[in-house]
TrEMBL record, chain A:
InterPro entries referenced in this protein's UniProt entry, alphabetically: ABC/ECF_trnsptr_transmembrane, ECF_transporter_component, EcfT
Localization: Cell membrane
Biological role stated in the UniProt entry: Transmembrane (T) component of an energy-coupling factor (ECF) ABC-transporter complex. Unlike classic ABC transporters this ECF transporter provides the energy necessary to transport a number of different substrates.
Molecular function GO labels: transmembrane transporter activity
Transmembrane region(s): 21-39, 72-94, 114-133, 153-172, 244-262
Family in the record: Belongs to the energy-coupling factor EcfT family.
Membrane topology note: Multi-pass membrane protein
Protein name: Energy-coupling factor transporter transmembrane protein EcfT
One Pfam family recorded for the sequence: CbiQ
Keyword tags: Cell membrane, Membrane, Transmembrane, Transmembrane helix, Transport
Top-level taxon: Bacteria
Keyword Methyltransferase tagged: no
From TrEMBL, chain B:
Domain ABC transporter: 3-244
Subunit organization: Forms a stable energy-coupling factor (ECF) transporter complex composed of 2 membrane-embedded substrate-binding proteins (S component), 2 ATP-binding proteins (A component) and 2 transmembrane proteins (T component).
Protein's UniProt name: Energy-coupling factor transporter ATP-binding protein EcfA2
Topology in membrane: Peripheral membrane protein
SMART domains xref list: AAA (SM00382)
Subcellular localization, as worded in the UniProt entry: Cell membrane
Native source organism of the sequence: Baia soyae
Amino acid sequence: MNSVMIGQYIPIDSWLHRLDPRSKCIFVFCMLILIFFANNVETYTLLLLVGLMGVALSRISVLLFLRSMKLIIWMILFTTLFHLIFTQSGSIVLQTPILTIYEEGVRQAAIISVRFILLMIFASLLMFTTSPIDLTDGLESLLSPLRRWRFPAHEFAMMMSIALRFIPTLWAETDKIIKAQKARGADFESGNVYRRVKAYIPVLIPLMISSFRRAEDLATAMEARGYAGGVGRTKLRVLSIRRADILLLVCFAIVATALFWMRK
Amino acid sequence: MEISFQDITYTYSIGTPFEHRALQAIQVQFNQGDYVAVIGKTGSGKSTLVQLLAGLLLPTSGVLQVWDTRIHSRSKKLGEYRKKVGVVFQYPEHQLFEETVAKDIGFGPKNLGCDVAEIEHRVSEAMSWVGLSPDLRDRSPFELSGGQMRRVAIAGVLAMRPDILILDEPTAGLDFRGQRDLLSILKRFHQHFGCTVVHVTHNMNEAAELAEQIVLMSDGKVIATGRPVDIFRNLPNLQVSGLDVPDVTKWIMSLNQKLSTPISTEIYELSTLVDELIHRGRRGS
């Protein structure tokens, strides 16, 4: 595996890494909503600045953030193109025999692109700086009030942490099986779409079998160690809100107030 | 010197916080037709080394020369090269996928472009090599026992008749009987086809018994290479790499302390040792 996966936790130490996962989750969630309230150059600039500050505070290489943008580059290009072609209001910016581009189209395309980029920056900030365990602990804690309405918060969090835990394992397994079938002469790189999809059958079947085997082993191992759901379960690491977490939420309040004051 | 690693370095996840240098300035040569054992502890770079040889990874720097193929950091189209190399990965039974044993073994030959009759022939031949009874042909590989599944997986690679056969810890997880059987299959296959075998292991007994050349690895570097005798004579090298001499050698060495005329420590096969002891017994020494 030569690439870091999208949204993978980057285990270094920074101010953002040390924050309580709950405050980070709330912050990012609220930021994601706030993005949709921005409606002029000033507000978008404000949000971009906050995002860049976050990137700087995370002490994670900008390169990794750019790499995570690769995931959405096609979405950005597609929607940009869509807006440029189909939005037809405002004055004409460019006129060619085949295509006329209007001012509003350019505006919409820019807004959508910036929104995508902002969404990605904030989502990456959360994923890069929060370990999967912290993330699920945080979510469990945030969701626990819903237990009153019989929402299985603990089970939900456990499921999520198991899923996250096994992503790298499955990824390594896929890599190994692809290599093994390649060594047996399987060709994944040539032929039409149908042939290529078919070429992956020798990878998918063993992968599926091993996933079931792993799931079964894990269930046995958990039961053998007395796991019986969330009732009466205590935690070794208890999450605690510190001064830095309050600072983060105060920051959000300031940004939000500024944004609502600056927007049209 | 048909296979040579020339100053090869390999780094995983380059340019990320997970960057990890698995191989460093590897210089090593294998003779065609030799049985080579690559030994070293977990994480010493053995698996990376053989994946490079298999054309599954490209070196970060340096050149791997195999006959007339040169593999370097920007090599493309290694498909043809890979057809000459067979790889048995760790726990190869986890890669079975076909409905029947015969189809799974025939997957490799089919990809090589063999016709139906040839595939048929190779499947039967490979099954007899690994000691699978012909009436297992149409069974699902997933109904078999672990040991049998391992044999099916290995047969799938042998059926490709590779010029270079790579085995990564092929005996891991087998019981003693299964290990002995597999080693004797490998030995006979090697002698019969004269292919180059590269056998990765951390079991010194396997390496000593089968190998003509041993490559000793530690921390992504080749510490020493040579005949088993040369490798196992150099205790400091072994200890630095966290390894030990084979059990046979240990036993001979402890026996030698009580003997006036020591037994040669160049004996690695149990049967040879037994012969030697009987011979000595007859002479009355």
